[in-house]
Amino acid sequence: MSLFQVEGLVKRFGGLVATDHVSLSVERGEIHALIGPNGAGKTTLVNQISGLLQPDAGRVLLDGVDITPLPMHRRVAHGLTRCFQVTRIFPAQTVRDNLLLAVQAHSGSSFRFLQPRSQASDLYVKAEQLAERVGLQHSLAETAGALPHGAQRMLDVALALAAAPKLLLLDEPMAGMGPGESQQMVHLIEALRKDMAVLLIEHDMEAVFRLADRISVLVYGRVLTAGTPDEIRNHPEVQAVYLGTETLETTA
Ligand SMILES: Nc1ncnc2c1ncn2[C@@H]1O[C@H](COP(=O)(O)OP(=O)(O)OP(=O)(O)O)[C@@H](O)[C@H]1O
After folding, report:
1. Keywords of this protein's UniProt record, alphabetized (predicted)?
2. Taking the model in full, what pTM does it have?
3. Which of 142, 155, 156, 181 maximizes the CB count within 10 A of its CB?
4. Distance, CA of 252 to CA of 232 (rounded, Å)
């Protein structure tokens, strides 16, 4: 059984069918990319997967559990966490405090005045481990809002990792990044594979073709095709869709 399945999802906005009977699956340890030209319906689909939007028909299953009726926070508890295009960090807080808040939120404890010291130090250790995982171990005392854009996106990923997701939804993680920052994000996503599956929505084709095990191509709300990077690169219909809009040329 696949870790994650979308079955026959439909979403209409008036007369427009933004998601038209979409089905896809993500396996354990897989990096699955969702690509498609502007307006193809990627955001609408991801909003239904994360629980921001309710579909008109179809189901979303995680680990065999039908999570379609669940609100976003309950999906997080089931193991599905999303990083947004816009970061959700607390800009006035330090990196450490951002991470502590995230770790604490998922630990079931709270920062009470008389909290046992061992419990509090455990949260600090977890926060520091997360910082190290995304390369921010030397920025723990810095104000999050003062970090460069790329580092803020890394922090956002670390906040998502605090929930220990089974499936991480990354919504354009490279958006607004310079080449160096994109490289760091690619390395980070590659390293996540051993602990979780990733559903990646990204316009940076070089990153997509480098990272993805499989790619689903969305066009006019439908899955045109799904396959390995090589299959997608050589697919005549995919090439036709992208010709004149975005290019599928990659260094891979
Ligand atoms: N709330 C809404 N009400 C009406 N139409 C909508 C709404 N949200 C999206 N749409 C329409 O649904 C279609 C799919 O939009 P969506 O934003 O999901 O595409 P996308 O693939 O994410 O595009 P982009 O890559 O530009 O972000 C578009 O035609 C869009 O205009």
Report:
1. ATP-binding, Cell membrane, Membrane, Nucleotide-binding, Transport
2. 0.90
3. 155
4. 13
